[in-house]
């Protein structure tokens, strides 16, 4: 399925993601990682750590609700995979980001912006693994 | 709390307009030999430039505004756990098309596929956290 190239919207969205990362570091002194936020909410260690992550998660989830109410904007979400692929993919992602200690936001944005060697390696590994997986699914199995 | 909420809102808005919540678009970025859509490079580029410059300014301060110190990752070793975990994450991302940061804000749309993915993601994190503690205890 083709999707249209959206350099300006994607650049603006990326800049907002970066802005949220900078603001979180400037105020609470924390890394803006989706894995860390979600894990901190569902596997709580301490109450103080739980509350800021729950607040960030609530903000994330209400973004499309507010956007729809204020501007009528509804993001396009089209899923090429089957429900089974979502379940299998979700489980593997969950295990992977826990052992890898981060995902696209934590390693890919925040860690790389700090030039963290762990994040540079992690990002390289998951980008290649994703590309190989997509190639195999689309051009080897499905080709 | 309000601060965290507003920051989550900015992150979520960025994810939605960038296209990261749309698996068709995300997967097309990786499909260079098929229906390639390079948009994601612009998401990553925009986020990295802002964060790189912003962190340079922020991390020069003695402490963050609402906490006594910066909580930066303390691990520095590139071990098998980091590499295997990241490789697994990539495989799962390629299968489902969602990464955690793309899927969490999309929960607010009520989309059924997002619900399925995030439920599986939560179970995966629970299982790995439990297994990780067992490995630590065993070692």
What layout of secondary structure does this protein have?
The complex is a heterodimer of chains A (143) and B (139).
Chain A: H1 7-27, H2 34-42, H3 47-70, H4 83-100, H5 104-113, H6 117-141
Helix pairs in contact in A: 2-3, 5-6
Chain B: H1 2-18, H2 23-30, H3 39-58, H4 80-96, H5 100-106, H6 112-138
Mean pLDDT of chain A: 94
| pLDDT < 50 stretches of chain A | none
Quickly give the structural class of chain A. Answer: mainly alpha
Write the element-wise H/E pattern of chain B from the N-terminal end onward: HHHHHH
Distance between the termini of chain A: 14 Å
Query: Biggest sheet of chain A: strands, sense, closure?
Result: none
Total discrete domains of chain B: 1
How would you describe this structure to a colleague?
The complex is a heterodimer of chains A (143) and B (139). Chain A has 143 residues and is mainly α. Chain A has one domain (7-141). Chain A has 6 helices and no strands. The longest helix of chain A has 25 residues, at 117-141. The radius of gyration of chain A is 17 Å and the shape is globular. Chain B is mainly α. In chain B, helix 1 (2-18) packs across helix 5 (100-106) and helix 5 (100-106) crosses helix 6. The longest helix of chain B has 27 residues, at 112-138. Chain B has one domain. Chain B has helices at 2-18, 23-30, 39-58, 80-96, 100-106, 112-138. Classes of the chains: A mainly alpha (143), B mainly alpha (139). Chains A and B meet through helix 1, helix 2, helix 3, helix 4 and helix 5 of A and helix 1, helix 2, helix 3, helix 4 and helix 5 of B.
Keywords:
heterodimer; A: 143 residues; mainly alpha; B: 139 residues; globular
In short:
By secondary structure, chain A is an all-alpha fold. Helices cover 75% and strands 0% of the residues of chain A. Chain A is globular and about 45 Å long.
């Amino acid at each position: 399925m083709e999707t249209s190239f959206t350099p300006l919207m994607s650049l603006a969205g990326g800049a907002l993601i970066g802005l949220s990362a900078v603001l979180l570091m400037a105020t609470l002194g924390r890394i803006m990682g989706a894995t860390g936020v979600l894990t901190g909410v569902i596997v709580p260690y301490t109450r103080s750590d739980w509350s800021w992550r729950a607040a960030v998660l609530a903000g994330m989830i209400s973004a499309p609700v507010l956007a729809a109410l204020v501007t009528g904007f509804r993001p396009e979400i089209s899923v090429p995979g089957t429900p089974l692929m979502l379940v299998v993919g979700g489980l593997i992602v969950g295990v992977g980001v826990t052992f890898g200690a981060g995902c696209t936001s934590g390693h890919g944005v925040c860690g790389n912006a700090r030039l963290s060697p762990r994040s540079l390696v992690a990002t390289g590994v998951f980008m290649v693994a994703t590309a190989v997986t997509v190639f195999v699914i689309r051009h080897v199995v499905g080709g | 709390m309000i601060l965290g909420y507003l920051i989550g809102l900015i992150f979520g808005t960025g994810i939605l307009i960038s296209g990261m919540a749309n698996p068709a678009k995300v997967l097309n970025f990786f499909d260079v030999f098929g229906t390639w859509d390079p948009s994601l490079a612009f998401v990553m580029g925009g986020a990295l430039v802002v964060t790189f410059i912003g962190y340079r300014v922020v991390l020069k301060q003695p402490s963050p505004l609402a906490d006594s110190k910066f909580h930066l990752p303390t691990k520095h070793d590139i071990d098998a756990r980091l590499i295997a975990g990241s490789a697994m994450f990539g495989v799962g991302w390629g299968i489902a098309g969602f990464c955690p940061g793309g899927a969490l804000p999309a929960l607010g749309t009520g989309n059924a596929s997002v619900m399925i993915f995030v439920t599986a993601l939560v179970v995966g994190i629970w299982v790995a956290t439990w297994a990780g503690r067992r490995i630590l205890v065993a070692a």
